[in-house]
Amino acid sequence: MEQLPLKKWPKQVFGGFWIRFGAFLIDSLLVGAITKILLNLTVHHFVAPADATGHWWYTLIKLLILLAYFTGTMVYFKGQTVGKYLLNLKVINFKTGEADLKTLLVRELAGRTILHFLPIVAVTLVFTRHRQHLMDMLCDTVVINLKQVDYFNQAAQGHIVLPETAPTDAPEVTNPI
């Protein structure tokens, strides 16, 4: 059976706000740990943490570590970060269905920078059909839930009996209480 274009996939296939937020929290914990380690090994040898916190260059270093983590993992794992991998999410190009290098670089470098300073932009994914936030729309990307994609493909091929196609001669279940 020929696979349906992404635009015709059901909404459940696309990663929703809470699962994406969970992946972001996992990644944020990793970025926080990496940042602490790197800053303790370098900057904090020369400047006390309390003195460095208010400076623009300290914020810039932390942002660069965040961008390096997200961009590096997305490119290396072909559309997934550690958080996305653990929660079965993947970023793909909306038109081609693949995670290409150029799209991931633009999405992560520009998108993460914007989301770092304007995190409210991420809420837009709640209101769009394909659950895309602003940077997803600008880069023509979408986050898919790999488990839901597998389920959808199996259902489309007839390997899974959907509730609306289940036999009606099944005995009715009554509540024993």
Automatic annotation (TrEMBL):
Cite the InterPro entries for this sequence: Pra-immunoreactive (IPR051791), RDD (IPR010432)
Q: Where in the cell is it found?
A: Cell membrane
What stretches pass through the bilayer?
A: 21-43, 55-77
Record-linked Pfam families = RDD (PF06271)
Q: Determine the domain of life of the protein's source.
A: Bacteria
Sequence ranges assigned to domain RDD in this UniProt record: 15-139
What Gene Ontology cellular component terms go with this record? plasma membrane
Tell me what topology the record assigns in the membrane.
Multi-pass membrane protein
What keywords were assigned to this record? Cell membrane, Membrane, Transmembrane, Transmembrane helix
Work out whether the entry's keyword set contains Transmembrane helix. yes
Q: Which PANTHER family match?
A: LMO1584 PROTEIN, PROLINE-RICH ANTIGEN HOMOLOG-RELATED
Instruction: Provide the protein name.
Output: RDD family
Organism annotation = Streptococcus merionis
Organism taxonomic ancestry: Bacteria, Bacillati, Bacillota, Bacilli, Lactobacillales
